[in-house]
Structure formats: C-alpha cells, structure tokens
Write a structure and sequence with these properties.
about 350 residues; 6-stranded antiparallel β-sheet; about 60% strand; mainly beta
Length: about 350
C-alpha cells in the first residue's frame, strides 16, 4: 500500500508541472465613417429633376410642378464589435482553431439636400360672344405660383444594430402658392418628400497570423455576418504568432428616394353668380361661362437612383492577440541512466522495507 501511495504522489507532481493552454477572448471595435458623400451615389454630384402636371395643350387649365437640385450630401458613422476566441498555445503540426463572432453594431446617418421647386399654371379662356356688345376674345394667361428654394433633411441612429436591419427616416415639405386674375383663380400646393434607408450587410477582411521573428504570414478571408465563423491554422514554425484582422471593410447599402406631388385648383368665370367654377349646376342668372378643376396628382419619382454603398474608410488592422507555438514533446523510449538507477534504488529500498515489516 505504501508503494502505491508513493507512485500516485509522483504521478500527481508530474501532471501538475505540465503547462496548459489558456483560452483568450478578444473584443475589438472596427470604426467607420464617411463625410460629405454625394446623395446621388458615389460620384461628386448630379442634377436631378422631375415634373408632374395635368391638362393638355387644348384644355382650359394646364398645371405643372418641377423640382431639382445639384447638391446634397450624407454623413454617416458605424462601429462593429468583433469577438475572437482561441487558445494561446499550440503544438507544431496540429491544426489550431480561431473563432470570430459578431458582437453587435451601432450606425447613424444624416443627409442635407438643398433644392428648388417651380409651379406654374396656364389658363386658356374661350372666345365669348355677347349680343349687342364686343366679343370677349380667347386668351392664354400664364401664372407663376411657386418659385423658391427648399431643403430636406433625414437623420437616423441606432445603438443596437444588426446586419440586415434597415435604418430609415423621412422628411417632406409642402409649399403653398397662388395667383389671381380678373375672373380667374388658380392655386397649387406642391409636396416633396425624401425617404432615406441604410442597411449594413457584413464585415469583410482578412484574418492573419504573422510569425513575430521571421515574418511568415498565414491568411484567411473573412465575411462576417451575424453568425460565428471558425478558422483553422496549421502553423509552420515554432515561436510567437500575432493574430490580427486586417483590411477591414463594411458592406452596406444606402438609398434615398425623392417624390413630387401637387394639388392643383383653378377656375375661370365670366359673368356673375357663377358659384363654384368646378360645378356647373350651381350657376345662377348672369353667369356667361365658368369652368374649373381641382385634383391631386400621384407622386412622381424625382430621382430614380439605384441603392449604392457608402464609401466608408478601411480599417487597416485590429490586434486580436498572440499564439505561442511549441514543438511536440515526445516521451523518451529509454530513461536516462542516472534517473533509471535512482528509480531502481528507490523501488529496491521500498521493497526491502516491506520485506522487513513482513
């Protein structure tokens, strides 16, 4: 029994003296930004314009509204949390695993658009024959209802953002306008709206392991979404290998749509007691002529652009930690002579003591 206890104690000491690998958990933030990028895509700027209207060249009323801009910018920031897990020691000749996971993100954007709007109307009056009086000739009377600048702004932010989530905001402006003439009333209320959306889709880059002494580099491509990615490295040299996430880019999609609509009203009346020009049934005695219209157009797409990616900066490198690679230690087939004699002497002494007690 004494022999068994001594052998157990020797085994415990040897096992406790073996160094074990520790698990490393790194948490790094990739920060991105873009300033004063054009709202019209990756270019520096672009004109846009669209119009809505009612009436033909022969109709009594012709209304039109148009809008356009040559300047508009977007600013945006985003940050993505990346978590890496691995063991800080590895054995040469074996595959060593590194795990990357998405730890959440934050994102924001704001846009500024300066533009203009023009609204006009043309009223065509018919020729009116009046007995015993000069005829009233036909006339085409133009009106400028709105001619002014406006601005639109959209802004949104989210501190708990996930890839694929849509961040959006809208803004609109409604500009009243009116013109008047003898026996003629025209007015318009143009409406312009903007809706902006931002979607972050993935984090891309390169996971690299670089030998601190020789500079040897091992790389693997990274395309991180909301899930977990596992990578295996087969290290070719012993020593310290530095882990990093390099050339990190943020895949995204931004879109900003502009719409234009308008409500037009107009009427022409000649005589008295014409009532509502758009309703002939309410005319009384003395009304020679009246005609009117009131309508709201459907929204026209002012800027039909395709979604584009914001030009976020590239993050050069994010340090994840280091791995110490050692050569595998093989147990010796034949014990060293000195150690063998010491072990045999000890065992012999224990055996002799056992014999004496017996």
């Amino acid at each position: 029994m004494l022999l068994s206890r001594n052998l157990f104690a020797a085994c415990f000491v040897l096992s406790a003296g073996a160094a074990g690998a520790a698990t490393v958990s790194s948490d790094v933030i990739a920060s991105f930004s873009v300033d004063n990028q054009s709202l019209f895509g990756s270019g520096s700027g672009a004109d846009f314009g669209a119009s809505v209207g009612i009436g033909s060249s022969t109709s009594t009323f012709q209304f039109g509204a148009s809008t356009g801009a040559s300047s508009g910018t977007i600013d945006s920031t985003a940050s993505v949390d990346v978590q890496a897990t691995f063991e800080d020691m590895a054995i040469l000749g074996s595959t060593h695993n590194v795990s990357l996971s998405f730890g959440g993100a934050s994102a924001s954007f704001d846009t500024a658009l300066g533009a203009f709007i023009d609204v006009s109307a043309t009223v065509r009056t018919p020729e009116i024959e009046i007995p015993l009086a000069p005829d009233i000739p036909a006339a085409s009377i133009p009106f400028t209802l709105v001619d002014e600048d406006y601005s639109l702004e959209t802004a949104a932010s989210d501190g708990t953002y996930f890839f694929g989530q849509v961040l959006s905001d809208s803004d609109s402006v409604s500009l009243p306008g009116a013109g008047a003439g003898v026996g003629i009333t025209v007015s318009a209320n143009p409406n312009v709206d903007q809706t902006s959306t931002l979607t972050l889709s993935s984090l891309m880059g390169t996971l690299s392991a670089t030998h601190a002494a020789s500079g040897t580099m091992l790389t693997q491509a990274v395309n991180l979404t909301n899930g977990l990615l596992d990578f295996g490295f087969d290290f070719a040299e012993t020593g310290i290998w530095d882990l990093a996430l390099t050339d990190v880019t943020l895949a995204n999609s931004f879109d900003s749509d502009f719409g234009l609509s308008a409500t037009f009203t107009g009427g022409v009346e000649i005589g008295i007691n014409c009532g509502n020009p758009a309703t002939n049934s309410d005319n009384a005695f003395g009304c020679l002529f009246d005609q009117g219209v009131s309508t709201t157009t459907s929204t026209a797409n002012v800027l039909p652009i395709n979604p584009f990616g914001l030009n976020y900066n590239t993050v050069a490198s994010l340090d994840l930690g280091a791995i110490n690679v050692d050569a595998a230690v093989e147990p010796s087939a034949v014990p060293l002579p000195a150690a063998a004699w010491l072990l045999l002497a000890g065992l012999g002494g224990l055996f002799a003591m056992g014999r004496r007690r017996a």
